[in-house]
Write a structure and sequence with these properties.
- The protein is an alpha/beta fold.
- It contains 14 helices and 8 strands.
- It has an 8-stranded parallel barrel with strand order 1-2-3-4-5-6-7-8, surrounded by 5 helices.
- Strand 5, helix 7 and strand 6 form a beta-alpha-beta unit.
- It starts with 10 loop residues before the first strand and ends in a 15-residue tail after the last helix.
- InterPro entries: AKR_Detox_Biosynth, NAD(P)_OxRdtase_dom_sf, NADP_OxRdtase_dom.
- This is Aldo/keto reductase.
- Keywords: Oxidoreductase.
């Protein structure tokens, strides 16, 4: 299996695309169609943002299906496609990862995945070996693990090493409000072992975008509204600091939160549903925050005392 250094500084996420279980409508309160999202994808291609992250479970395949409808109109080698095997929805079969990958490939209109992740830490001993034949057959180019703690990452790495394979990437929730992967040593482990750390929920599903506050909360009825609206009065203190820093760089609040994640040595996955968000992400990749600004931002974040651990996570990731 080939090794890689993912050269892009930012990945674009399609979690908020599609509808149904764990889809854009239930989690984010969106009701977007392929027609709504096509300009988003096309603008990303124009700007050279060609690393896309999705999962079989996002809208139970509807995110992949929408993304796949766009992918088929572009040269495959121009895109880096990341999708995931989610044990909780695995088929009752002899080779469930193969089954799920086949379904993902069909929806995405691809014959291989650039990165294929074990989506959570349900059972490292059971599920890690499932990806070995997929990697050896060339159906996946790189193996990733998501929502794993440090010991689970090390154990998965050991299982793969026995077959001459390796973990190329780790994907965990990481933001100014949730730095567990940093404090637990996962970021250092990744740096020391040549593993790319993909940070998701860098903007806390919009709570750190500067768009929402106590006077402008998330619309009721979505998972993010239930998780963040109660905390928005406190979060405003952090977004105000981000705004002050943003003014120095002629940037947006979202761009500064994203640039912080890049400065920490991570590759942030930024969920995009509008052309403006794609353009925002592209600009964020070019912002280099000073040490003083990093310290100022982190000092504000550390005062919040808010837990943003979500229902699929444990306290150790």
């Amino acid at each position: 299996m080939t090794q890689t250094v993912f050269t892009q500084k930012i990945a674009l996420g399609a979690w908020a695309w599609g509808t149904g279980f764990a889809g854009g409508d239930q989690v984010f309160g969106n009701h977007l169609t392929a027609d709504d999202l096509k300009p988003v994808f096309e603008r990303s291609m124009e700007l050279g943002l060609t690393l896309w992250d999705t999962a079989a479970v996002y809208g139970m395949g509807t995110s992949e299906k929408i993304l796949g409808s766009f992918i088929q109109n572009h040269p495959r080698e121009k895109l880096t496609i990341s999708t995931k095997f989610t044990p909780q929805i695995a088929a009752e079969s002899e080779h469930p990862a193969q089954v799920m990958l086949d379904e993902s490939k069909q929806r995405l209109n691809i014959d291989y995945a650039d990165i294929y992740w074990i989506h959570n830490n349900a059972d490292v001993e059971k599920w890690t070996p499932e990806l070995i034949p997929l990697a050896k057959s060339g159906q996946i180019k790189h193996i990733g693990v998501s929502n794993h703690n440090l010991e689970e990452i090390k154990r998965a790495s050991s299982i793969l090493a026995k077959e001459g394979l390796r973990i190329s990437a780790v994907q965990n929730h990481y933001s100014l409000m949730h730095r567990v992967s940093e404090y637990s040593g996962i970021l250092d482990y990744c740096k020391d072992n040549g593993v790319v750390f993909f940070s998701y929920m860098v903007l806390e599903q919009g709570a750190l975008s500067g768009k929402y506050d106590s006077q402008h909360p998330f619309a009721d009825g979505s998972a993010r509204a239930a998780s963040y609206n109660q905390h928005l009065p406190k979060i405003e203190a952090l977004t105000q600091v981000l705004k002050e820093v943003a003014e120095q760089y002629k940037a947006s609040v979202a761009q500064i939160a994203t640039a912080w994640a890049i400065a920490k040595g991570t590759l942030p996955i930024i969920g995009v549903t509008t052309v403006a968000q794609v353009e925002d992400a592209a600009l964020a990749a070019h912002i280099e925050l000073s040490e003083a600004d990093l310290e100022k931002i982190e000092a504000s974040a550390e005062k919040l005392g808010i837990s943003t651990i979500r229902e699929w996570e444990t306290t150790v990731i």
